[in-house]
């Protein structure tokens, strides 16, 4: 199938999948991206069979509250469900929960599963997310599923000595909750400044000071060699005793089951700007048919969405894989629409959005902060931990982050980012005189020198 290339407004499209009627669409992954994909297919009028395959036992539930309201016991687990049973039933799904997809045959358009029969498809959406990285040694807590959160919550009793490995957003949120529950927390981070790779060194420093103020033993520049029955052992041989250990050091995209399928698997499933998977043959530089993800060329009738998808975002001109809740839903919708209307596909060009709650701090961010050249405080002050920062890359405004500000404070900046505003156009227009303070970015975002990243500790992970 031929897809539009950038700059070609109305290219002809001839698609093997669009020629054949779509009767059965399979979605692998029953979570935030998968459920929105299914809803979009129905909303757009798809009358055929939608098969949804999910490894977990539960219908789709929300993960951000796991490290917040669930860990703190403010919520019961039944509040996590993303849809009511009635809404879910209304989608009329051929639902296979507790079922793992084990292989994909793109030639014959079949998904194989661990237990049941092979499932044929006319088109496929993959939304299998990520799973936590682990450390060698004794089993430790991780935080990805509701069971993980409930298991950890049970152990967070007052006086419990908790070691958290990784001071990304996930580790920071769990640390804040554990302190509020009366635990003694040691937070270990390999980088000199937590979150510097994600939000800049000065802002990372300000955010991490909150831990020390709340009595956390934050140790930076340390790396953990192994988890033991007594706690953890650092690379220099030091041991830290703990009752519980939480490992929050990043994630792996769930793509192992796609080995040999012909998809391009490079830190996620490589997709074009329409969220359509790009065949491996076309990304092999030695292949005469090698394609850039910007162009997208051949239809495998396979789309990807959410944490597992690495797609080309023309707004920023790079491929990116985003582990954010809002992106999962938006991309589930985009993938489903583009799958149904291949002749009228729309590039998926979101401004990534992320939020985090730590102690009394509400953090919100829009855009593409990684590898920025400059960060500027345009409202409030770092010292008060109430500020709005904007990020520059070359001559573009690429991101904005607010701490302790109402969400509406960020909206104009989101608009500027969405319209690809230049730095010089956007920043002077919006900054009140005297409010702007440039903060140095030395030592900030370097993908190579940074620590392993936790599921939500990068605003984007990208490669150009
Ligand atoms: C503790 C925690 C806190 C978070 N907090 C925030 C936050 O504050 N803000 C924010 O923006 N984002 C946050 N996130 C990230 C957000 O939850 C994710 O971006 C979102 O859940 C991604 O949705 P998804 O559908 O792509 O993947 P997932 O939610 O990971 O779902 C993938 C599903 O696919 C299933 N699966 C995997 N492999 C297979 C297979 N082979 N066969 C069948 N099923 C399979 C998995 O079991 C899983 O159910 C947080 C995540 C966690 C874990």
Write the layout of secondary structure elements.
Layout: H1 16-19, E1 24-28, H2 32-43, E2 49-53, H3 85-90, E3 94-96, E4 101-105, E5 110-113, E6 119-120, E7 123-126, E8 130-132, H4 146-155, E9 161-165, H5 169-180, E10 184-189, H6 196-199, H7 201-213, E11 217-220, E12 224-227, E13 231-234, E14 239-241, E15 244-247, E16 251-253, E17 269-271, H8 280-283, E18 302-304, E19 309-313, E20 318-321, H9 325-340, E21 353-358, E22 361-367, E23 374-381, E24 386-393, E25 396-403, H10 411-418, H11 423-430, E26 437-439, E27 461-463
Parallel strand pairs: 1-2, 1-7, 2-3, 7-18, 9-10, 9-15, 10-11, 17-19
Antiparallel strand pairs: 4-5, 5-6, 8-16, 12-13, 13-14, 19-20, 20-27, 21-22, 22-25, 23-24, 23-26, 24-25
Helix pairs in contact: 2-9
The structure holds flavin-adenine dinucleotide.
Task: Please summarize what this structure is.
The protein is of the alpha/beta class and 464 residues long. It has helices spanning 16-19, 32-43, 85-90, 146-155, 169-180, 196-199, 201-213, 280-283, 325-340, 411-418, 423-430; strands at residues 24-28, 49-53, 94-96, 101-105, 110-113, 119-120, 123-126, 130-132, 161-165, 184-189, 217-220, 224-227, 231-234, 239-241, 244-247, 251-253, 269-271, 302-304, 309-313, 318-321, 353-358, 361-367, 374-381, 386-393, 396-403, 437-439, 461-463. It has three domains: 16-131 and 252-344, FAD/NAD(P)-binding domain; 133-249, FAD/NAD(P)-binding domain, CATH 3.50.50; 353-463, Enolase-like, domain 1 (2-Layer Sandwich).
